[in-house]
Amino acid sequence: MTIGTEGQNLSVPITDVLENYGGPMGEVVVFQHDPFEDLGFFAEVLDKQHTAYRVIQLFHGEMPAENWEQVKALIVLGGPMNVDDEERFPFLRWEKRIIRAAIDESVPVLGICLGAQLIAATLGSPVFHGAVKEIGWSPISITPHGQVDSLLGYLPENATVFQWHSDGFELPAGAILLASSQHYRTQAFRLGKIIYGLQFHLEVTPRMIERWLDERSKDLALSPYVQSDKILADTQSYAPALKYYGERFLSEFFRRVARSKQRKAEGGQVLA
Length: 272
Fold this sequence. Notes:
By secondary structure, this protein is of the alpha/beta class. It is 36% helix and 22% strand. A nine-stranded mixed sheet has the order 2-1-3-4-9-8-7-5-6.
């Protein structure tokens, strides 16, 4: 599959773009949609593992047109826009093509919140505006499949995680449902072995939460049932466990990535 920026006629494989833009073989590429939604605690995990990564700031217009090849993994972060907001955020159209091609090329992909919605939309699943905004700390239910999944199986069956979204999505065809909540059935899914989508946030730090509450105060004013003081108090209670969940999840994700790369190098099939 060939990918380029808007108005360009390129004929290069997605795998070439990832390598040439991302730098050395084995670097993780991160799509960031908003200055306030960064890797958070995940950056610390990547640094601890000595994993090289490069952040592509889509909100600054970074849409590389080079070839993407042999990148270690693609992480698609969250953002305040919705997946169909292409007129206001033209990079979304480009990004969907990149995600689709990455999946087709068996590049491991992790989507968080908007990132999970973009994966779902790319795979043809409906993304919808929910009846309830999930903002703050709330429980999710880990499904039986999730309980035996090596990335999520260490979470308690009813885990409290951090949410900030008003859109949801249907489970993509062929994907396995890993977690649900009261208002949104699809909270986490896995497609094959190396494609994961999380509607909730495992990467957030207390500082990020404080910034979101400050920067998005207008949104909160439209949701009187969302109480900033309670969110901050809950953060003191739940953030340490979330940090543990996030480190375990991302560490296991990259262990799985390493195994998939080894099988690919040995000529084996990697299931997307």
